[in-house]
Amino acid sequence: MSEARRTPLYPRYADYPAARCIDFGGWEMPVQFYGIQQEHEAVRTRAGLFDVSHMGELEVTGRDAERLLQRLTTNDVSRLAIGQAQYTLFCKPDGGVIDDLLVYKLAQDRYGLVVNAANTQADAAWLRRHLEGDVTLRDRSDDTALLALQGPLAERILSRAAEARVAELAPFRFVPDARVCGVRALVSRTGYTGEDGFEIYVDAGDALRVWDGLLQAGAPDGLLPVGLGARDTLRLEARLPLYGHELTEEITPLEAGLSPFVKLAKEGGFVGREALARQQEDGVPRKLVGVELLDRGIPRADYPVYAEGRQIGAITSGTQSPTLKRSIGLALVEAAYAARGTEVEVEIRDKRLRAAVVATPFYRRQLVEGGGRT
Fold first, then answer.
1. Start-end ranges of CATH 2.40.30.110 in the chain?
2. What is 285-358's CATH superfamily?
3. Based on the number of CB atoms within 10 Å of its own CB, is 165 exposed (0-12), middle (13-18) or buried (19 or more)?
4. Which part of the chain is CATH 3.30.1360.120?
5. What whole-number distance in Å separates Cα of residue 259 and Cα of residue 191?
């Protein structure tokens, strides 16, 4: 078995006695620094700082770069202005999802792609398989560190540490040449928690300086480092999908409720368009829904979901919500059982517990004065 990879920020994990690391897609990553509940609460009420340097960063350049990305992604890359980012997906010809990603328009013929860590090599291979014309693909992952500053006080904290006027950034906009803690950084108003926040891309060699500087800048506001455990509970409360759970090669973006990011009518089409158009016309057979347990228990991934005495789907992600104090989950179920209020059962340790289909996202953040949106 190959040794797990480590991010440039790994040396800082030892500063926290309660830190605990796990193998995450081949990376040795912190599941917590202080405790999942405490870190979750910090992001919801103040701010948290995440090391997400395991994510993959690819760069596509050349006169035909836009044409390539239009062909391979479900969203409409042609709508991007320089300085704007877009959520999108790679799909197989049958409509299954290869990965979900962000596309940044860095210049007229230059794009940055941020992909899931475990899929970086496969995504790069998928792009290379379709290269045509004047296009160059580079993998910048090893040279790049990514920090995420999230929470209602994220703007205030970053404003102390950044020379760029980050408060003016709109959602899914970025500054490519900001200076954060004295080093050059790309700063985008994006995130994966359901809160306001920023993602900060720096050279790998500058990661420790920026991490330390941000924690110092945020100390008066109670900024905490946050691990993958709270990242998962935060994103689940906000109904944000996780690849390998809500998105797989066997689940389409329409089934996952991501139709706003699937532009079936865009010029030229894209890989998977025909299959997704047929699915939309015939009726999406399965739908991703929110469920809340009415009996005592916690739903977990792959637990079967029943209705009318038969299995109609399965849990994709579940937890005891730290914010709501309720047992919640996402489930992929037959479309006939997707209506809000539908009574279902979740099988946990050979016992079927009562649950109901509920509205999502489970949590919506409260806007703060001067705050942006993610």
1. 285-358
2. Aminomethyltransferase beta-barrel domains (2.40.30.110)
3. exposed
4. 10-52+142-237
5. 20
Task: Confirm whether pTM is higher than 0.85.
Answer: yes
- C-alpha 245/C-alpha 316 separation (Å) is 5
Query: What are 21's strand-pairing partners?
Result: 30
**DSSP code at position 204:** G
In this prediction, the residues of the chain whose per-residue pLDDT falls under 50 are: 1, 367-374
Residue with tokens 């760069």: 59
What's the start-to-end Cα distance of the chain, in Å?
38
- Reported as a single tens digit per residue, the pLDDT across 37-94 is 999 999 999 999 999 999 999 999 999 999 999 999 999 999 999 999 999 999 999 9
Q: CB-based contacts of 83: which residues, under 8 Å, 6+ apart?
A: 105, 173, 174, 175, 176
Fold classification of 10-52+142-237 is Gyrase A; domain 2 (3.30.1360)
DSSP character string of 222-263: T-EEE-HHHHHHHHHHTT---BTTTB-TTS-TTTTT-GGG--
Determine the residue type at 136.
Answer: T
How far apart (Å, rounded) are the C-alpha atoms in residues 15 and 30? 12
Are the C-beta atoms of residues 315 and 273 closer than 8 Å to each other? no
